[in-house]
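Researcher: Good morning. I'm working through a list of sequences from a screen, and I'd like to move beyond sequence-only analysis. For each chain I'm collecting a predicted structure so we can compare shapes side by side. This is the next one on the list. No need for commentary yet; just the structure.
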Amino acid sequence: LGYNNGICSSWFVALGEDKPGTFSGVDTFAHEVGHLLGASHDGEPADMRYPQRPGARNCPFAYGYLMSYLKRGAVSHHYSSCSLAQMKYIVSTQAASCWEVRATHTYNITRKYPGMTMNTTVYCQRLFAAKINVRADASSSFTSMCMVRCLYSEEATSNGQTSYKDVEALEYMKCGEQGQVCIQGTCAVPPKSWRIQE
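Model: Good morning. Structure tokens for this chain:
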């Protein structure tokens, strides 16, 4: 939940949920910040209260960009052209004082992405902690598409029946061959300065 156009106002607030240790709230965070910066859901018309602000009707919800709720692979990690135009418009209408950095504390960045900190089985176990016999299907062809197939049993009496759910891989989780990792939903060779330490 985020207030549309909330940036630089008393409505500068958003709410999301993250399951600790799974980084499941990263996309939610980006989606809600999009609202605060003026992006509506893809496919929605212009807000008549702001006649100059562009709408998102020309970017169908079904395409699965970040300002929809659909997961369509790599595009789900990017804002549509409509979202970018809306955010650009809202940002351009704000005073420079809105963007002034007032923080007095700096943080050290560890240069680690979530996928560098756990393998696919640990990731599945964290996502499906209430299930039993949780593991990742290492033979799945989905890995090269930055998807992880999590296998599990519903309960101890399930007669060995295994269920599965396909989930998006974390950023910098291993995929493909020759040191490739997932970067915004695409299996690619990472930039040299960000190579995974073995």
